[in-house]
Amino acid sequence: MSHDTLIARESGSESSERYAVGETLRRYFESRDLTRRGICLMNAGRFELAGKAFSDALQLNPESASAAANLARSFVGRKDYPMAAQTLGEAIDADADDVTLQIRHAMLLWKGGMVNDAIEALRTSIEASPDCAELHFQLGTILAALGDMEEAELRFVQATSLDARHTEALVSLSLCYAAQEHPRSAIKCLMRAQSLQPDNAK
Description:
The chain is built from 10 helices and no strands. By secondary structure, the protein is mainly α. Helix 1 packs antiparallel against helix 2, helix 2 runs antiparallel to helix 3 and helix 7 packs antiparallel against helix 8. The chain starts with a helix and ends in a 6-residue tail after the last helix.
């Protein structure tokens, strides 16, 4: 093989690499532009067009968690909670460590009437992140709404154990105690919550 042929092949390889990098950057910035456009449409209340922009952004950059979250919001704007939940579910598959996405996903399942799925989603998240106070709090909130005060109490206790300054969990725990006719425990929790947020009228 001649020296000129080797140079030609190396140049061709470098050219292909530069093209690949350029294409990746183009798709990335075009995805960001579509996401910004979608946000403007969302703010204008044009949820269907916003959803189209976010969907196109995701096609260009499938790993974009923000595009997925915004696409879910566009479905929420149309009150299509099942599709919003499905979108976030797919985003979680791509980024299993994003607890915020997991919580939003569970809440959308709840809003869409898929109560058991919401509970199961939070239980799965807790198995993966047992030290996350917010996951325990959110599961407790759903369980309390369903009238399962015993497990809800356990979840709120766990949340306050993991985060002693979680005032919402303290207030919810006090309501659990009150519902189970344990007023002294309820008052203690409220006093702890008030000491953390003395200016909170609630």
